Amino acid sequence: MFAKTTLAASAALSLMSGAALAHATLEQSEAAIGSTTKITLRVPHGCDGEATNDVRIEIPDGFYNVKPMPKAGWTLSTETGAYDVPFDNHGTEMTEGVRVVTWSGGDLPDAHYDEFTLRGTVGPDEDAGEAMYFPAVQTCASGTADWTDTSGAGHDVPNPAPSLTLVAGDSGHGHHGHGHGHGAADGEDASSVGDLRITGASLQATVPNQPVAGGYMTVANTGETDDVLVAVSSSVSGRGEVHEMSMDGDVMRMREVEGGLSIPAGETVTLEPGGYHIMLMDLEGPLSEGESADVTLTFEEAGDVTLTLPIVSRQRGGHGDHGDHTHD
C-alpha cells in the first residue's frame, strides 16, 4: 500500500533553519470530493540559505488521475504505483497511476519564491472534513527541506506536510467521476468549484471540417465574492475562449468577452445559444453526438475545474452554426 505517510520516514532529513517561520504550503485550502482540482505547492525559500534544485511531491491515497504542470528550466518526472482503492474513470477501472511527481535540475535561489503545480481528482469515497496531505521535499546542494509530517499538528511540528480540507460535493460523497456529477435535484449533471455550481453543461456536435464548437452551461455563484470565468481549454481543441453573440441588424456577430465573463456573487449566469457561450477553436477533429470531451474552466477566484461534457445534437445544443457567424 502506498500510504499517505510513506514519506514520514524522511523526517530525519535535515531541516532548514527558521523553517517554522515559512513552511511550504498549498495555495488551495479546500477541494471538493469527486471533483478535479489544481494543487499548487508554494516554495518560499531554500535549504539553510542554499538554492533548491529538486522538488518532490507525494500523491496521497484518494487523489487520482494526476497530471503535473511542466516548468521551464526543470526536468519533470513521475513515479507510478498501485492505488489503494481503484478509481472508476468514466466506466474504466484504474488500478494504478502517478504517485510521486518530481521537478529536478532547477535553480531556485533561497531569496526567491516559486510554485509547482499539478492537478488531479479527489476520489468519491473520501470523507468531508478530513485533511488530505501532500508530503513534499526540497533538495539542495548539501541538504534538504522536508515537509512530510502528516500528524496534523500543524505549526507545532517543524515540518508539517502541505494539506487541504476536503468538502462535500453536490451529491453528498461527491460521485462526480472527473468533475462530472449526478446529484443535481433537477436531473442535470452538476459540478462545483469553490462557491460556483455548474449545471447543464454540454458541447454542440460539429460537422466534418468545422473548426469550432460551442459549449453551454449555467453557473451559479453561491458565495459572497464576485468571480470571473477567465479561460477555457480542452484537449480536443487548440484554444478556447469565452464569447458573446449578438445581432447587428440582420447579422449575427460573435466576439470574445474581454477580461472574462463576470459571475457576480449571489447570481446565476447562463451560457446559451444566442448569448454568452464557450468556444472551442482549432478543433482536432469532429465532435460526434453521444461522445464526450474534457473541458477545463479557469475562474479568477475559484480556480480550475475540469468537466466531462456530453456532446449533444445540434438541435439540442441550440440553433445556428458556429462556423457561419461573423467575428468582430
UniProtKB/TrEMBL annotation:
Domain YncI copper-binding: 23-166
SUPFAM superfamilies documented for this protein: DR1885-like metal-binding protein
CDD domains named among the record's database cross-references: YcnI_like
UniProt xrefs under Pfam families: DUF1775, PCuAC
Keyword annotations of the record: Signal
Signal sequence region: 1-22
InterPro entries (UniProt xref): LpqE-like (IPR007410), Lxx211020-like (IPR058248), PCuAC_sf (IPR036182), UCP037139 (IPR021174), YcnI-copper_dom (IPR012533), YcnI-like_sf (IPR038507)
Chain positions covered by the region annotation Disordered: 167-191
The protein's name: DUF1775 domain-containing protein
